[in-house]
């Protein structure tokens, strides 16, 4: 597929996309190279590998990688692939080791990826193997942002903070509420969903429109109000006010460079806390510290969904951070982490873990609502005619503006697809751009055009 054909699939000026972007196998192969081969991909949280020799086993796109803490405290990212015949070196999810030994013929690598020993080296290789040439392949770029570790295969990519752009402002609201930063609480939930990665990433980037309808039953159960309580009586113990996202406050922000955020806040810290019980009380108690660090708007922002392009998403409030690892055009492997302030007391971390799993674990009552939709759309796309039919992405077209209250990015109403259009424009720019200069310039031009329109 050539560049013009790829460009014809997304019309971000008029708000249409062609479904081939979710189902075409050839496009998917190009994505592995041009999107996942050159964007910053989230791998692990610093708290998961605190000591030298600690490792976390994960993926960059479909490539298996090991994220390993080195003796000097730095982090290296290397292919989890033996250089002899390509066997997966390490099958443990995480742990601590002095070496990675291949289960096939026994080549062993140091934690920095250097090939250390080869069975029967003298007899089999007659002393001729140059081990210095056969170390593990490493990601050339590894950087952290406030506890989150990322890597990039592309040496020419902008640094991580430049890549984040305005999205760092939103990410800070999640990671920087309290002194000491955050940590991962509990293990990583992993499961498969039969849908293209862009359905999940785009929804967290931009789609507030689905919430009142898809999550209608959850909203009613989760957030009783005097209005929807049958007897109209006041809220009782443990009952929270109707969440801000159910009321449709705030707006969807396109944060530039493909990133997006649905942003909700009210003037009342209590009204925005909808996760219940100890977790609500904790957010309320720590609000002054958060306000001192982040300012009022972000301190009050305790709900809202976000995507950092391409596949890292998170939700304020339920504290879920997730990666949509691609597994072919019609499948993703979801990895979900619960993020808590390091300074939170143990009982709050425990409560957060439970509230997180209840809402957004694999059986979470909100999680299931979302994935069911993506699976059904993907099933429809097995039809030939279904794949020829343009999708409408025109909500809020022409109503984009910059805010004057310091919230960065391009704003639109609560129900708008500006961030989705920006997300797909970034996808096109990456799929067709020959250099990062070209990609960044195309993104900036698109933003200006949208504002001027
Ligand atoms: Fe790893 Fe042979 S494939 S030692
Ligand atoms: Fe949802």
Automatic annotation (TrEMBL):
Superkingdom, natural source: Bacteria
Keywords per UniProt: 2Fe-2S, Aromatic hydrocarbons catabolism, Dioxygenase, Iron, Iron-sulfur, Metal-binding, NAD, Oxidoreductase, Plasmid
Molecular function as annotated in GO: dioxygenase activity
Keyword Iron: yes
Coiled-coil residues: none
Record domain Rieske: where: 41-151
Family: Belongs to the bacterial ring-hydroxylating dioxygenase alpha subunit family.
The protein's name: Aromatic ring-hydroxylating dioxygenase subunit alpha
UniProt organism field: Novosphingobium humi
